[in-house]
Amino acid sequence: xxxxxxxxxxxxxxxxxxxxxxxxxxxxxxxxxxxxxxxxxxxxxxxxxxxxxxxxxxxxxxxxxxxxxxxxxxxxxxxxxxxxxxxxxxxxxxxxxxxxxxxxxxxxxxxxxxxxxxxxxxxxxxxxxxxxxxxxxxxxxxxxxxxxxxxxxxxxxxxxxxxxxxx
Length: 167
What we know:
alpha+beta
């Protein structure tokens, strides 16, 4: 068991961090979800529909298959982004300073403590970190840490607690 020195990390939850958090979280959740395989099957069927429509001259089937493919690759992400953007714009945390206190007991924000037992995982993505707690994901940008040693210490603690996952 290592000796972890408690730390505080601070960052501003602004539009730039929201944009990065959305992109990284969406991509991570899509890549690690069983739904993507269902989606691939769905797209394969739609593409067979396109081929069948072209061979059979069925314009209606061609239009339906094209709309389904556009929905899967373009519209779905745009709809999710719009919903997330609206939630960000209406959030009381918009443009506020986020301060997290991290210790061997858990992570605390403004008096609300998340014990390590309730944290599902800590996922380093590029230089940033996604923290999963129940059905929510929290984004911690790399600039929240004052130095590289703090980020490494957090990853080591998460690994010790069995909560560090890699992409």
